[in-house]
Amino acid sequence: MAQPSTMPAMTKQMQDCVDACMNCHSICEETMSACMQMGGQAQMQVMRALMDCSEMTRMCADMMMRRSPMSQEMCAMCAKACDMCAEACMAMPDDPQLMRCAEACRRASETCRAMAAARM
Fold this sequence. Notes:
mainly alpha, elongated
């Protein structure tokens, strides 16, 4: 017989942050694929930022969903990774995929920063 769950329900703020992180993770993965097709040495800095951001947003969402006691610190680190990725993507303002990615990164950063400051 299963034990009733004692985990508190996610707040709207937490759910918004998880959603923003998962969306950002997905767009970073798509953008990495697009960058690999483009090639070129200039892409290396962008690729590193995309990889870091993709991993951080996925991990951050996972930690919030399981109510990890380290979620708050993770949200702060994730916001920083998202900011760095948005900045790297903005280096190529003529590329619509990179601009879409920068926008998703900014949104995830904003929600993560709010969660880092919130009481969990």
